[in-house]
Design a protein that fits this description.
heterodimer, A: about 350 residues, alpha/beta, Rossmann fold, 2 domains, five-stranded mixed sheet, 9 helices, 17 strands, globular, B: about 600 residues, TIM Barrel, 22 helices, 16 strands
């Protein structure tokens, strides 16, 4: 089973429209759909503006919260009532028997998505689509391919939006570490075939950095950080290793996934970190390497006007031209018809 | 004991989380409150350094904040904190849907109670979402014995009621005969017998009713509700139970709150009713079309009507009753027109809880001939007693211009008749700014004294339930919704302070809707009253000394009116003579059914 996730850089960047485009282009495939938040509702929970709905054809498997499916405007057959909780009840796995609109609210954390993916894999599904929520990304590293959505809702400056996506593309282009996900659970130093663990629960601030620095053994080629880290601590580590020069032979820092790197800071600060890395002789690699499939852009943004939100739009042609000029992967405007090829 | 990290994820608005922390401390939980100036990363480090059972996050919401919260959830997830700690969001606009969107395990919003939060933390079941209203049906009349404190008035009323009952005992009407036949039809098991009874029934009906029932030729604007409409309604009710129960009353002794139904369409009535139930409404009064009052006989079936007033039929009342929560009370208007006995019968058979009957107002302000209504009304009250349905007596003749003392005298006559016939009457004096009040400046100084005096006067006379209506704040509302909601809330607070049993409230657009009222304006007044009850609690308004003067005046004038009525041979005669409201007041004896009593 292939799995594809849709990640937003902010609310209202076009995740729902992108998912709808995927559903449209994947007719006659055995697909399942879930989401890590709440999507497909009629009116936005925050801006109170109308939202695009999610329409599901007959035969699609949907994993959504009990309350959502019970109120859905479709007919369905319940395949399984899982014990995966959400604020709207446990997740139900259903097969759509009469097409219509459904709100998607699925597992909202890593371990629950993992559990659901196992269940769905057992149903003989070709493709699992995982809808994102807001700018949430943490569970998405489990998936095979990711589509990023960005737009005026994240920033109204097209140049900044483009630079951010350039950084995202760079981050996803970093190599796999060829390490089994189950082989490490704590920060470890690799020396030859030896794994030396370091007792740190997080790698966030100066204290954590200080402890880690002291723990680095004299002979160490790789440092594996399979947990949450901040860009601040990671930059500090790269600067430290760089300042030590050839006396420290560390040439690789293994992170859990590009998603974790994205989580560690904002995109533009990460670009500075990548530039610092580029002439340090050190490389980043990942335990999990989801592929960046495409980027979709949404010129629409909710604009504050007289204390309420109205629709605002970026220049769609300029936006698309800017993105396509700087990125090597596919870029689509969600406001225009587009199809994905899997 | 649970270990809880309290996170004020907001530089300013941290009062909510502080209150919750203090409450959880009282329950013996181990809480740690963070300062409001920490970065998300710093909070994650604290959360990851110790195993907390719960991380409670408090935050006001605006555009952009959702992304901050979502990233914070991601950080906790990436740090593995979610495997040991449940993360919970709290804030005024938080709903379960928003909590799901943000990625939290649970969300508590403006309507969440502390009990609910503590129960969640302690892993206890609490009757909440999807569990219905979680209340029991109230018996409004149960604590009253109808004993009289004013013996002079008791004697006058006793004589008036005895004379009326004696006068009516040899009389009958087509309305009574139809009720008798209708009950036989209801109990008949054999179709031939039913057909034969229906023939007898139609012999007592007007042509319009016969045509509707036998040929499907309905009065303009009336049609049958379709099977598909009923199916859709059933689905609506099945999937949309009142969640997160709301209670209007802040103190146990606060009055129940009723609203009107009567859009013409029972499905629209039910849709509105289900929304109102969600906001804690206690009961509904069903109002029938005015044309129904003019015809002998009722149309059968589940019917919709494109103008004001929902048609009185067994199927319509039963549909309403079955669609409401079992704890929600339902009263059916019966005292207007020529079908009072049959309406009470259908209400009783369909499971209504109360019925609305007033022999005096029904004759003076509602168009029915006094003789006909007296005869029909007595039979109807006996039926109400048989079905154990209390009957509520609206004093809306005051709106025609009748002075309050005449209206109150009429209510008391009904109470004594009800008492004598073994029924349970409920007094419904008006909380209004009626014509007589306006003309005489009785509320020029304030709206408290005169309304208070009505309650004090009635209470000094008889130990009966009191239900100001109908609705409260009548003639004090304007087209402006905020003003209307305020007017209702002030009157409700006054009613609560006076310790009455029930109030009826309008919507904020009731007088100005220019058509069907909208459900949001129904909620306006319910929410306003919920706040008014909370505001007034067990306190009350202090009337000026004028209230006492008004009370004394009302009792004296009620006594005068009743003395005059008692001097007549019977109640209809007194009504014809204008003793309970005359043409000068703006009240005219009705003419529907004149000459039909045999």
């Amino acid at each position: 089973m292939k799995s594809v996730g849709i990640i937003g850089t902010a609310k209202n960047t076009g995740k729902t429209t992108t998912l709808s485009a995927l559903l449209r282009s994947l007719k006659n495939r055995k697909i399942a759909v879930t989401g890590i938040g709440y999507d497909g509702e009629e009116i936005d929970n925050i801006t109170m503006l109308p939202k695009p709905r999610l329409y599901f054809e007959k035969g699609i498997i949907v994993a959504t919260a009990a309350k959502c499916i019970l109120n859905a405007e479709v007919d369905y057959k319940i395949l399984k009532k899982t014990s995966i909780p959400t604020p709207l009840g446990n997740v139900f796995l259903v097969e759509i028997t009469k097409p219509g609109l459904v709100v998607i609210a699925g597992p909202n954390r890593v371990s629950h998505l993992k559990e659901l993916m196992k269940l769905i894999a057992g149903l003989g599904i070709d493709l699992l689509l995982v809808d994102g929520s807001l700018n949430r990304i943490s569970p998405m590293y489990l998936l095979d391919e990711l589509i990023f959505t960005t737009g005026g809702s994240k920033n109204t400056d097209i140049k900044i939006l483009t630079d951010e996506m350039v950084t995202v593309e760079k981050i996803f282009s970093l190599p796999s570490a060829a390490i089994s996900p189950d082989s490490v659970s704590s920060i470890s130093f690799v020396s030859g075939s030896d794994f030396i663990p370091c007792d740190l629960a997080t790698f966030i601030d100066d204290d954590d950095l200080g402890i880690l620095k002291k723990c680095i053994p004299d002979r160490c080629e790789k440092i594996i950080i399979p947990l949450f880290f901040s860009e601040y601590a990671l930059t500090g580590l790269v600067q430290f290793l760089k300042s030590r020069g050839s006396s420290v032979a560390v040439n690789e820092i293994v992170l859990l996934s590009p998603v974790h790197l994205l989580l560690s800071s904002d995109f533009l600060r990460l670009d500075s970190l990548l530039r610092l890395l580029s002439n340090s002789g050190i490389k980043f690699s990942y335990v999990f390497t989801p592929r960046l499939k495409a980027i979709t852009i949404n010129p629409f943004f909710p604009k504050l006007y007289n204390y309420h939100f109205v629709a605002g739009y970026l220049d769609k042609d300029e936006f698309l031209k800017s993105m396509k000029g700087k990125l090597s992967i596919d870029v689509f405007n969600v406001k225009e018809r587009f199809d994905f090829d899997f | 004991m649970k270990k809880i990290l309290c996170v004020p994820f907001d530089p300013v608005h941290d009062v909510g989380i502080k209150i919750i922390k203090a409450e959880l401390d009282k329950y013996g939980h181990d809480t740690k409150l963070l300062s409001p100036d920490l970065t998300p990363e710093a909070i994650v480090k604290i959360a990851a350094s110790d195993k907390f059972d719960f991380i409670l996050v408090s935050r006001t919401l605006g555009y952009g904040v959702a992304e901050l919260l979502a990233r914070f959830v991601d950080l906790l997830d990436a740090a593995g904190v979610r495997e040991t700690s449940k993360i919970v969001i709290g804030g005024k606009p938080i709903t379960p849907e928003l909590a799901a969107e943000l990625g939290f395990d649970k969300g508590f919003g403006a309507n969440s109670s502390m009990e609910e939060i503590v129960a969640y933390i302690e892993g206890r079941e609490i009757t909440l979402s999807g569990q219905g209203l979680n209340r029991t049906k109230k018996d409004i009349a149960s604590k009253y014995d109808y004993s009289f404190n004013n013996l002079e008035i008791e004697a006058l009323l006793g004589s008036i009621a005895d004379k009326l009952i004696d006068w009516a005992k040899t009389k009958s009407s087509p309305g009574i005969q139809r009720a008798v036949i209708r009950e036989k039809i209801f109990n008949a098991t054999d179709q031939t017998e039913k057909d034969s009874l229906l023939k007898e029934y139609y012999a007592l009906c007007d042509t319009e009713i016969i045509n509707a029932n036998t040929r499907g030729k309905f009065i303009k604007g009336v049609r049958k509700v379709t099977g598909k409409e009923l199916e859709n309604l059933a689905n609506f009710i099945k999937h949309r139970k009142p969640v997160d129960p709301v209670k209007i009353q802040h103190a146990d002794n606060h009055p129940l709150v009723f609203k009107f139904l009567g859009s013409g369409c029972p499905i629209m009535d039910i849709t509105h009713a289900k929304v109102c139930e969600r906001y804690g409404i206690d009961g509904f009064l069903v109002i029938n079309p005015s044309w129904e009052a003019r015809f002998e006989g009722l149309i059968e079936g589940c019917l919709t009507h494109e103008n004001d007033g929902t048609i009185t039929s067994f199927d319509n009342i039963k549909l309403l009753r079955d669609s409401l929560d079992s704890s929600t009370l339902l009263t059916v208007r019966a005292h207007r027109g020529l079908n009072t006995p049959e309406t009470i019968l259908l209400a009783g058979l369909a499971g209504a809880d109360l019925a609305k009957i007033n022999l005096v107002y029904g004759s003076l302000g509602a168009g029915t001939d006094p003789v006909r209504l007296a005869v029909d009304g007595l039979y109807a009250i006996q039926l109400a007693a048989r079905f154990n349905m209390p009957f509520d007596i609206p004093g809306n003749d005051e709106l025609s211009g009748v002075p309050a003392w005449k209206s109150l005298a009429g209510l008391l006559i009904n109470v004594m008749i009800g008492k004598k016939l073994g029924a349970k009457p409920i007094l419904k004096p008006l909380f209004c700014y009626g014509p007589h009040i306006v003309i005489n400046g009785l509320m020029k100084q304030n709206y408290i004294d005169y309304n208070t005096a009505k309650i004090l006067a009635l209470r000094s006379i008889v130990n009966s339930p009191i239900w100001p209506g109908e609705p409260i704040a009548f003639m004090t509302q304007s087209e402006e919704r905020v003003q209307s909601a305020n007017a209702n809330s002030y009157h409700a607070a006054l009613a609560a302070g006076l310790g009455v049993d029930v109030i009826t409230v309008a919507s904020t657009d009731e007088a100005y809707s220019r058509g069907p009222i909208c459900v949001t304006s129904r909620i306006d007044t319910i929410r306003a009253i919920t706040d008014a009850y909370k505001f007034v609690g067990n306190a009350s308004f202090k009337p000026t000394p004028r209230a006492e003067e008004f009370t004394k005046m009302l009792i004296d004038k009620i006594t005068e009116v009743l003395t005059a009525v008692e001097a007549r041979d019977n109640l209809p005669g007194a009504i014809y003579d204008g003793l309970l409201g005359n043409q000068e007041d703006g009240a005219y004896p009705g003419t529907f059914g004149a000459g039909t009593v045999n």
